[in-house]
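Sequence, please.
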C-alpha cells in the first residue's frame, strides 16, 4: 500500500510517499515546499499571507498526489502551527480550504517520534538526538536504547534569523544576539535537563544542509554522514568571519538555506557544547518516519 505523509514545518513543508510492507517501508518519492511559515508570524499569530502560503503548499502537494493516483494521505504540523496563538482558527481555515485534516503534534510528541524515526536507521544505544526546525528544536537523550529525557525548545533556525539577523548573512552583532537568545530559550527557559553524551544523532533539513556544506568545506567523501566537534567548531568559526567566502560556500551547496543555515548551525553548536559531545552523526530518518511507524503502522 502507498501512504503519503505531509509535514507542515516552520521553514519547509515536506511530502513523502512510502510503500508499506508488513513490518517495513520504502521511500518512493519526496517533494519539498519552502514556505518559511515562521517568517509570517507577527505578535505570536500566523498572518493571513502565512496561512495562504500553507494552503498553497498543500495544494501543490495535492496536485502531485493526484497525478500519481495516491489517495492515502496524512497531514501533521509541528511548531509551525503549535507555537502560534491562533492555532485553532488557522487549522480550521487550512482544513476548509484544502480538505486535508491536520494533526498538530506537541513538542514532546515531536521529540519522541523524531527519536523513534532516527533510531530506525542507526544502532546507537547511548547518546542524544536533536532535530533543529524552523521554529523549535527537539532534544532527546537515551541510554541502553531507552529514552531518558525529551524537551522541545521554542527556538529554531528561521526564528533566530527573523529575530536576530538584520541582513541575509549575520554580522558580529547578529552572532551576539543569537547567543543571548539561545541562552534565554534553551538554558534558562528550558532548564536544559540533560547530561553529558558523547554522540549526537541529528535529523532535519538544517542538519543535512550543514553536513553537505561540511563535506564541501573539508573535502569529505560524498557518503560521509558524521563530523567531529572540532570540525563543527571550525566551520562555525569560518561562518563568524563572514564575507564573500561564506556566502559563496553556502550558495554553492545549499542556496535555499543561505539565511537559515548559519542560525541553525549556531543552535547545534550550542547543544553540542551543553552536552559536551564529541561526535555529530546525521540521520536519514526523523519525525515523519517515526509518525509513520508509530501512528500508522503501529510499531512499538
Amino acid at each position: 500500500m502507498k501512504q503519503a505523509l505531509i509535514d507542515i514545518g516552520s521553514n519547509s513543508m515536506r511530502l513523502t510517499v512510502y510503500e508499506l510492507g508488513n513490518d517495513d517501508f520504502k521511500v518512493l518519492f519526496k517533494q519539498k515546499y519552502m514556505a518559511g511559515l515562521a517568517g509570517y508570524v507577527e505578535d505570536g499569530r500566523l498572518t493571513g499571507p502565512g496561512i495562504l502560503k500553507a494552503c498553497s503548499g498543500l495544494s501543490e502537494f495535492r496536485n502531485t498526489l493526484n497525478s500519481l493516483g495516491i489517495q492515502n494521505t496524512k497531514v501533521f504540523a509541528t511548531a509551525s502551527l503549535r507555537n502560534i496563538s491562533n492555532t485553532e482558527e488557522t487549522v480550521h481555515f487550512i482544513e476548509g480550504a484544502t480538505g486535508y485534516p491536520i494533526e498538530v503534534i506537541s513538542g514532546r510528541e515531536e521529540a519522541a517520534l523524531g527519536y523513534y524515526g532516527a533510531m530506525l536507521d542507526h544502532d546507537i544505544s547511548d547518546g542524544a538526538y536533536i532535530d533543529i526546525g524552523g521554529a523549535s528544536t527537539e532534544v532527546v537523550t537515551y541510554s541502553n536504547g531507552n529514552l531518558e529525557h525529551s524537551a522541545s525548545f521554542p527556538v529554531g533556525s528561521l526564528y533566530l534569523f527573523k529575530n536576530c539577523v538584520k541582513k541575509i548573512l549575520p554580522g558580529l552583532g547578529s552572532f551576539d544576539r543569537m547567543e543571548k537568545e539561545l541562552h534565554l530559550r534553551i538554558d534558562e527557559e528550558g532548564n536544559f535537563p540533560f547530561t553529558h553524551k558523547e554522540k549526537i544523532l541529528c535529523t532535519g533539513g538544517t542538519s543535512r544542509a550543514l553536513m553537505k556544506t561540511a563535506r564541501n568545506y573539508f573535502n569529505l567523501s560524498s557518503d560521509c554522514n558524521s563530523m567531529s566537534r572540532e570540525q563543527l567548531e571550525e566551520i562555525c568559526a569560518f561562518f563568524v568571519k563572514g564575507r564573500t567566502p561564506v556566502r559563496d560556500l553556502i550558495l554553492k551547496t545549499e542556496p535555499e538555506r543561505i539565511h537559515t543555515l548559519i542560525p541553525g548551525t549556531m543552535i547545534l553548536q550550542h547543544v553540542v557544547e551543553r552536552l559536551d559531545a564529541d561526535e555529530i552523526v546525521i540521520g536519514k530518518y526523523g519525525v515523519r518516519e517515526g509518525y509513520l511507524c508509530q501512528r500508522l503502522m503501529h510499531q512499538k
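The chain has two domains: 2-104, 108-282.
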